[in-house]
Structures are given as structure tokens and as C-alpha cells.
Amino acid sequence: MALMPVKDARQRLLAGVAPAEVETVLLDQATGRTLATDLAAKRSQPPFPASAMDGYAVRAADLTDLSATLTVIGEASAGHGFTGSLGPLQAVRIFTGAPMPDGADTVLIQENAERQGDKVVALQGEPKGRFVRPLGLDFLEGEVLLKAGRLLDERALSLAAAMNHASVPARRKPKIAILATGDELVAPGKEPGSDQIVASNAIGLAAIVRMAGGEPVDLGIAPDDLPEIRRRIGWASDADVVTLLGGASVGEHDFTQQALVAEGFELDFWKIAMRPGKPLMSGRMDGRVALGLPGNPVASLVCARLFLLPLIKTLLGQADVEPESEAAILGADLAANDQREDYLRARLERRGDAWIAKPFETQDSSMLALMSAADCLVIREAHAPAAKAGDVCRIIRF
Ligand SMILES: Nc1nc2c(c(=O)[nH]1)N[C@H]1C(S)=C(S)[C@@H](COP(=O)(O)OP(=O)(O)OC[C@H]3O[C@@H](n4cnc5c(N)ncnc54)[C@H](O)[C@@H]3O)O[C@H]1N2
Ligand code: MOO
């Protein structure tokens, strides 16, 4: 049976997924959230023509004759404007950020002025408007500066504050329930039995969810037992996405699919043309998504990056949800590929202007140490012909 191509599977997973609801979030709580609606400036910045330097507010025309002496009639500093008006051959001592006094059009910086008592002499002329920031130089009231779908990072949040928003409309954090399955699993820090290993996938998944702006909901570890897996899926009735780890393959202890269907999810796809990640599965119920990730730890993390991450971004209403890839130079020969699109763990090295991606010789999907040592994934398309070191390839950086 032909396996479903990775791109088709992702398209199907994301089709019809609506963004989560909007909530109002205080700016200092909004880091990493996603803006839900366009945001317009409530004020102009600067709200007045302002000095960009420390010096003297003057009229440029008065500096054409350098023998002229100007009289200092007052002072303007940030937060304390000069209330009067400046006439010919007058100057106001001014500091960075202060409003320009009426009548002044130029700032003479103090390095280019000689002050004696209440008099000041210019050491050089200045063009009109020098060192003056016009009203609205940064932005004008009413301008839409942040678009819906924008990730609220330090730049967006500073701008929202400058626009005089104390809070922003943001998408609710999508709830991503995570259930590990397998008789062999014990939680990190516990003593595994002789046939057991430590469960690692849920920890990595939760990290990806948090970094993407979602809220992980830990459903713990279920044994390979259908009723218990179903019971735990039931705990997640308010989750946007239910993620099951392991049990996705064809073995007699693989219950993921059965459990999801028994809980009312309609299976959308199962098995894709991807390595690692072949047994990936997705289902739907009333707008909620179920994702069955393969148990092999590397497969689980690669699938999370390629499927869960775009899903969370879609739930957050972000625009560019597809995994970002870039060109690099292959650092090793590779054999022709089969029908599964391959995501090879690789090291990245800078050589001159180019990035060289060297896949590890071993690509077993159980090997977390190599996964954590990798800088990127090299993408090998399905049926790609053999490639040589020095060929161009595409990579996804970590
Ligand atoms: N006959 C076939 N066998 C397998 C196929 C196949 O097509 N035909 N596919 C293989 C591929 S590819 C993968 S990937 C695995 C995935 O199988 P499952 O999703 O059913 O995963 P499990 O069997 O439950 O576990 C696989 C492996 O991963 C370990 N594991 C599971 N959960 C965790 C966890 N939370 N943390 C750490 N490690 C975990 C588990 O102990 C197993 O070693 O199937 C192949 N088989
Ligand atoms: O595709 Mo599995 O994910 O080879 O390990």
C-alpha cells in the first residue's frame, strides 16, 4: 500500500482547524502569546516634535552668522517642556527627549556650542530640523503596526506598550494533552524493572508545546491496556489536541488507534511516507484533533516538529505554520532514498559562507543522544537519487 506523503498528511491534519478563542492578556503576561486581532496605535510617537540630543533649541536661521550671540531663556528636559516661545537670537537649553519649544526648529548639540552665563555661541551652523524628531516619526495614532497572528516577542510587546495598550487580545493557549503508553515505561527518576525503560517522549513533547505557546496537559503513563488508555483519553475532554505516544504501530500491544476510535475519534490517516515517523496517525472529533505519535523517541520528536508544531501554530492563528527549511551543502555521500521522506539527524559546520550538513552515520530512531547532538535535520525526498558530498540539500534547523 502506498504511504501518504508527508505534505499531504500535514495538509489533512491542518485542514479546517480553527484558531482558539480570544482572551485579553496583560502585557507582562503576554510573552510568547499570539496576537488575535490587528493592533492600532492609540497615540502618536513621539507625540510632539522632540529633541534627539542634549544641547540648545534654536532657530537654524540664527546660526548663519557665527558671530551672533544667542540668549538662553529657559530649559526643556524630558517630561518638562519649556512653556514659553522662542524668538530671534534666543535659545533654550534642551535635553534628549524634551519637547521642542515653540519657535525653535533645530538643536545645536552642546559639543558645538560655547556657553557663557546666559549666552551661547554656535561653533558651526546647522541645517533646519537637525536633531529634531518630528511628531509621529516612529508612528502615528491609528496606524496598524501589529498584525493578527504576530508572535508577541520583546519587540512586539515593547511596541504595543508604546502604542499605549496595557493589554492585548491574544489567542487562548491551546491545550495539548499528552499520554504516554507502554507497559515498559516508568517516569524519569523512578527505578525501572528489569524489562523496563524510562519514559522520555512526554517530556520532550511538553517542551515543544510550551515553546510553541501551548499548554501541555499531562495524562501520565498508561499501560498497554485498552480500557486504561480510553479512561485517560476521557480525562482530556477539554483539550484541543490529544496526543498519544507509542502504540501506533501494528503490534498486538498497539492500542492507540482502537482507543481513539472507541472514544469517538474518527480516524483520518494512519501511516505516512516518512522516516522516522511511519506509524503517525490522526483523528478528529467535533473539531478536536487526535495525534498518535510513534513510540521511538526520535520519531516522536521529529513528528512533533513536523506535525504538532504546525498544528499549534494554526490553533494560535499564526500565518506561516509550515516547517521552515533552508539550503545547505551536504557533507557526506548518501544512497538513493526509498518511498519514505527521510529526516536525517545531522551536524552543521560553517565553511566560509556555506553551511555544511553532515548526517550521522547511524540514524536509528531510538537514539536520543544523537538527536540531541544534531544541529539540524537533512530532508531527503522520497525516491531521491543518490547524492554526493558537496550537493545542495535542504535542512530544518533545531
Ligand atoms: N512490523 C512492523 N513493526 C514496526 C513497524 C512496522 O511498520 N512494521 N514500524 C516501526 C516504526 S517505524 C516505529 S516508529 C515503531 C513505532 O511503534 P509504536 O508507535 O507502536 O511504538 P511502541 O512500539 O510503543 O514503542 C516503540 C519504541 O519506543 C519506545 N517508547 C515508547 N514510548 C516511549 C516513551 N514515552 N518514551 C521513551 N520510549 C518510548 C518503546 O519502548 C519501544 O522501544 O514501530 C516499529 N515497528
Ligand atoms: O519511523 Mo520509525 O519512526 O522508523 O522509528
From TrEMBL:
Cofactor: Mg(2+)
GO biological process terms, semicolon-separated: Mo-molybdopterin cofactor biosynthetic process
Gene Ontology molecular function: metal ion binding; molybdopterin molybdotransferase activity
Span of the signal peptide: none
Pathway note: Cofactor biosynthesis; molybdopterin biosynthesis
UniProt feature coiled coil, ranges: none
Domain MoaB/Mog residue range list: 177-314
SUPFAM superfamilies: MoeA C-terminal domain-like, MoeA N-terminal region -like, Molybdenum cofactor biosynthesis proteins
Domain of life where this protein originates: Bacteria
Enzyme Commission identifier(s): 2.10.1.1
Catalyzed chemical reaction(s): adenylyl-molybdopterin + molybdate = Mo-molybdopterin + AMP + H(+)
Enzyme class: transferase
Entry keyword set: Magnesium, Metal-binding, Molybdenum, Molybdenum cofactor biosynthesis, Transferase
One Gene Ontology term, aspect cellular component: cytosol
Role according to the record: Catalyzes the insertion of molybdate into adenylated molybdopterin with the concomitant release of AMP.
Family: Belongs to the MoeA family.
Protein known as: Molybdopterin molybdenumtransferase
